[in-house]
């Protein structure tokens, strides 16, 4: 059998573990739905700021070029080509070394000098702007003026730093190709400087090789002169030995001659080798071959490399969405109003009897000016809440919700008899009168007489809308218990429903407190004997805490809370106060629940 008290998704009680697991997928979906506008606005605002940044900041263009650094092929001096590679550094280390040469200050200074970048705004040293304090302190100090050479050195140092900050050189994979990138505010400038860097590097490499060859040639020339003298001396010694007529044995003379010929041949071969290397060195000086060549010159870039408009807007949009989520989470954490039925049940630590969907304002009890109209108008709209439930005027959803509440109440009566039921709430305007009136309507039938008692002296909604011409009511009944048939009003449309208004007599104190007084308790008992169920529309606990005395005398109390209206702290305090006064809290009714929350 269906029991709303055990309705899926609306737990009747919560263990400590269930309370710890307060956040569910439904809560996340609810948070996103409620905070979507905040997140969207924050994302759009940050994305707009990103677009403004892209429009205001100076763009940069990056030019690319590629250079091939040839493997080492020139053997070391006086070293066989087949064995020269053993003394060379590894090719990886050589490539990285050449990359550092391209990024060196020497190349930067050469390009800066060629293109006169010292006066370019991107590389120019900004004029010093001393602060007021610096100027005041400087007036008491005698500083020597800077030398022009120092100023020029500072300008060059700043230009080199700015130049290197815009330069990127990297090796492409494991190849011998290096990619050179340079960024500038103008596309043509970036391309020109990139090509100039490669040209300066190749020129520096050629110059270094030529200088090395010149130094080697000078050393070879000096060494050749020494070897020439040694060869001439050894040949002279050989000729003199051949022409000498010293008396020696034939064997000694043969050995001596062989030694002199061997020395002469060795020195001659060494001389020939140095002579050949000297010729090669002179050739290198005449036409040195660089170890690198350009394989892809830079062209003028067509698109800016900074800022990336699409990427910046997307990133700032994501940052804005994260910021909006944080704002929404902070606001949600600070907002203690009921946002889910589960949270309300957890805060109140009691079961949920039912949820009532939001009722359109034009179908609620008429208040204010409409309630103060003439007797005929009030009679025509008398107790529309009760009438519309009976005539399905609240809509099918609300009718179904109140009938489900009836089933929940009937299920609770199986556990314990409930003849006197109090309806209250933590604060005003949370719909307890609507719940009380409609619950009384759906419970009333020819076999079950239901009395609805108005105890709200500040509001008197039931009394005004039903008994516009009644001047007697509850106070008169308390003064004369025999007057009950006179003060009770039978509803003309709902059979079995009766209403006990407050009446127009002045009241000294709270009606709930007066009814709970010891001398009037027999009157309270008598109402339970005459009617099957007595429903008291009690004042809210916040403005009438004296109602707690009456609550302890009733069989059960139903607490009405407004979705997104009632504070969970106030709800918890109300339930705790009722239980502290020994009142039996039957459960919680969450009112004004949006349709999407009802369907969740």
From TrEMBL:
Alphabetical list of SUPFAM superfamilies matching this protein: P-loop containing nucleoside triphosphate hydrolases
Membrane-traversing stretches: 36-57, 310-330
Keyword annotations from UniProtKB, A to Z: ATP-binding, Cell membrane, Membrane, Nucleotide-binding, Transmembrane, Transmembrane helix
Keyword Zinc annotated: no
Domain named Tyrosine-protein kinase G-rich: residues: 259-332
Residue span(s) of domain Polysaccharide chain length determinant N-terminal: 22-114
Domain CobQ/CobB/MinD/ParA nucleotide binding positions: 423-597
A Gene Ontology molecular function term of the record: protein tyrosine kinase activity
CDD domains: BY-kinase (cd05387)
Subcellular location: Cell membrane
Membrane topology: Multi-pass membrane protein
Main location as per UniProt: membrane
InterPro entries: Bact_polysacc_biosynth/exp, CobQ/CobB/MinD/ParA_Nub-bd_dom, GNVR, LPS_length_determ_N, P-loop_NTPase, Wzc-like_C
Gene Ontology cellular-component annotations: plasma membrane
Pfam families: CbiA, GNVR, Wzz
Protein name per the record: Lipopolysaccharide biosynthesis protein
């Amino acid at each position: 059998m269906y029991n709303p008290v055990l309705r899926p998704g609306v737990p009747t009680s919560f263990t400590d573990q269930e309370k710890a697991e307060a956040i569910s997928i439904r809560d996340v979906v609810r948070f996103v739905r409620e905070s979507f506008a905040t997140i969207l606005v924050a994302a759009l605002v940050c994305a707009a700021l990103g677009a403004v940044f892209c429009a205001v900041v100076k763009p940069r263009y990056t030019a690319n070029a590629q250079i091939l650094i040839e493997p080492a092929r020139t053997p070391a001096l006086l070293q066989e080509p087949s064995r020269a590679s053993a003394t060379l550094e590894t090719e990886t280390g050589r490539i990285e070394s050449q990359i550092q040469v391209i990024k060196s200050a020497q190349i930067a200074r050469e390009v800066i000098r060629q293109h006169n970048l010292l006066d370019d705004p991107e590389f120019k040293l900004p004029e010093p702007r001393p602060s007021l304090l610096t100027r005041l302190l400087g007036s008491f100090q005698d500083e020597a003026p800077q030398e022009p050479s120092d100023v020029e050195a500072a300008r060059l140092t700043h230009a080199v730093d700015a130049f290197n900050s815009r330069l990127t050189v990297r090796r492409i994979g494991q190849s011998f190709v290096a990619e050179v990138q340079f960024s500038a505010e103008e596309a043509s400038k970036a391309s020109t400087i990139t090509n100039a860097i490669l040209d300066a590097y190749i020129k520096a490499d050629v110059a270094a090789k030529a200088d090395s060859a010149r130094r080697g040639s000078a050393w070879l020339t000096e060494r050749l002169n020494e070897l020439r003298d040694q060869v001439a001396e050894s040949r002279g010694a050989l000729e003199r030995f051949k022409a000498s007529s010293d008396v020696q044995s034939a064997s000694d003379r043969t050995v001596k001659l062989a030694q002199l010929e061997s020395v002469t041949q060795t020195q001659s071969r060494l001389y020939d080798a140095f002579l050949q290397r000297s010729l090669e060195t002179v050739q290198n000086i005449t036409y040195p071959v660089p170890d690198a060549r350009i394989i892809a010159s830079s062209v003028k870039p067509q698109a800016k490399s900074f800022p990336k408009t699409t990427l910046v807007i997307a990133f700032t949009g994501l940052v804005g969405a994260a910021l909006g989520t944080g704002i929404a989470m902070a606001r949600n954490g600070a907002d203690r109003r009921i946002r889910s039925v589960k949270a309300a049940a957890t805060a109140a630590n009691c079961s949920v009897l039912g949820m009532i969907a939001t009722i359109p304002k034009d179908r609620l009890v008429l208040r204010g000016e409409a309630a103060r109209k003439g007797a005929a108008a009030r009679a025509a709209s008398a107790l529309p809440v009760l009438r519309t439930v009976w005539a399905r005027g609240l809509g099918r959803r609300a009718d179904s919700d109140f009938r489900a509440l009836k089933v929940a109440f009937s299920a609770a009566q199986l556990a314990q008899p409930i003849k006197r039921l109090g309806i209250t709430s933590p604060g005003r305007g949370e719909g307890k009168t609507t719940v009380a009136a409609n619950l009384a309507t759906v419970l009333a039938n020819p076999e079950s007489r239901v009395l609805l008692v108005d105890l709200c002296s500040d509001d008197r909604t039931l009394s005004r809308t039903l008994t516009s011409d009644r001047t007697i009511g509850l106070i008169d009944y308390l003064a004369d218990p025999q007057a009950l048939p006179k003060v009770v009003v039978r509803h003309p449309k709902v059979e079995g429903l009766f209403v006990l208004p407050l009446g127009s007599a002045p009241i000294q104190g709270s009606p709930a407190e007066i009814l709970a007084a010891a001398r009037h308790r027999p009157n309270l008992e008598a109402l339970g004997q005459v009617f099957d169920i007595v429903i008291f529309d009690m004042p809210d606990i916040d403005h009438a805490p004296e109602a707690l005395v009456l609550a302890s005398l009733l069989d059960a109390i139903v607490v009405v809370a407004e979705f997104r209206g009632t504070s969970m702290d106030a709800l918890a305090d109300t339930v705790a106060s009722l239980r502290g006064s020994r009142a039996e809290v039957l459960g919680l009714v969450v009112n004004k629940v949006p349709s999407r929350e009802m369907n969740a």
